[in-house]
Amino acid sequence: MLNTIPKLLSLALLLPTLGWTAAPLPIPEEQRQSLGIEVAAVVATDATLGLTATAKITLPPASVRVIAAPTDGLITSVLHQSGEQIANGQALITLSSPQLIEARRQSIQANLKHNLAADMAARDRKLFAEGLIAETRLTTSNNEASLAASDVEAARATLKLLGAKVEGKGAEITLTSPIEGTLIETLVEPGQRVDASTPLVKVGNLKQLGLEIPLSPEQANTIAIGQSVKLENSTVTGEIIALQPSLDAAQNVLVRAKLTQATDLRLGQSVNITILGKTDTKALSIPSAGLAWLGNKAYVFVENAQGFTPTPVNILNQTDTQVTLSGLTPNERVAVKGLAALKAKWQEAEE
C-alpha cells in the first residue's frame, strides 16, 4: 500500500503530459468478481440541473455613475444620504469655486467683444455696399466677428463643463444626477475642500445588477458566454457575459453574469445559483461512487470489450449519491465498485 501512493502521485504528475488519454485496461470477465468490480449505466438527465455555485451580487460598471468635482472648490452642501432614491437631474452637491467667477468674467468679456465685432462687421457691410471701403477691410471685420463668436461658444462650453448655468450668477455650482437610481455612496462632507476630478458621490441603477461567480478552472472550462443563470428560491434569472482570463488569489476563475428583474436583491449579498447546461450538450449522471480523482482531476473507468478505459470528465454538480457531468455519452457503463483495483491496474499499465 505504501508503494502504491508514490506511484499514484507520479501518475498524477504524468496526466498533463499524457493529455488525459489512456489505453484500455484489459480486465477479463473472470477477474471482475475477484476484484469486486461492478458497473452502472451513464444516464441522460435534465440539462437544467447545471452547475451549482455561490455568487455575490454586484453592481456592473455600466450601472454606476460617479459625480466628480468639475473644478477646485469648497463643498458647501451635501443634499442627500446613501440609500436615498434619486431622480434624473436631481441636485446632489453644491460647490463654491473661484474658478467659476473667473469663467463667468471671461464669458461676459467674450460676449462684449462679440457684440462690438458684430456691430463693426455690420457697419462695414453697409459701407462696402455704398462703395466707401475696400473689400479687404470687410473681410477683416467679418473674420474678427467670427473669431469673437467662437470665443463666446468656448466661454459657454467652459461654464457647462463646470456644471454652471450660462446665464447664472455667483460662485456656486450645483451638481446633479445624470441618471435615476439610488445614492450608493457619499465621499465628501460639507466644508471639505476638493480638487478638480475628485469623486464626490456615486449613483447606481439597482435595477441592473450582476453576479460574480468564483469557479474552479475545471468548472469554468464547462461554462460558456451566453449560458443562463438561475437564483435559488427566486424568479430572478441572468446570463453569463464574461469569464476572467486569469485566476484570482484563491486560484478561482471569476465568472460574471448580468441579472434581470433583480428588485429584491442587495449589493454584496451571497446567493446560491445554478448555471444551466449548454443547449448543445446533454447533462449526464452516474452514481457518485463511480467518480475517482488524481490530484484535482476527475475521471471514471468506462467499460469496453477489453476491460475499462480511464476517461476524464467535467463535473457539473454532485450530491452524496449522484454526480452530474459531461465528457461521456448516454448508455456507456462505468465502474462504481472496485475503483482501487482499477487504479492499481492503470498504474501498472503506465510503468
TrEMBL record:
InterPro entries given in the database record: BSH_CzcB-like, MFP_Cation_Efflux, RND_pump_MFP
Protein name: Efflux RND transporter periplasmic adaptor subunit
Keyword line: Signal, Transport
Molecular-function GO term, any one: transmembrane transporter activity
Top-level taxon of the source organism: Bacteria
Pfam families per the UniProt record, alphabetical: BSH_CzcB
UniProt record similarity statement: Belongs to the membrane fusion protein (MFP) (TC 8.A.1) family.
GO biological-process terms attached to the record: copper ion export; plasma membrane copper ion transport
Oxidoreductase listed as a keyword: no
Extent of the signal sequence: 1-22
Residue span, CzcB-like barrel-sandwich hybrid domain: 65-204
GO cellular component, as recorded: membrane; outer membrane-bounded periplasmic space
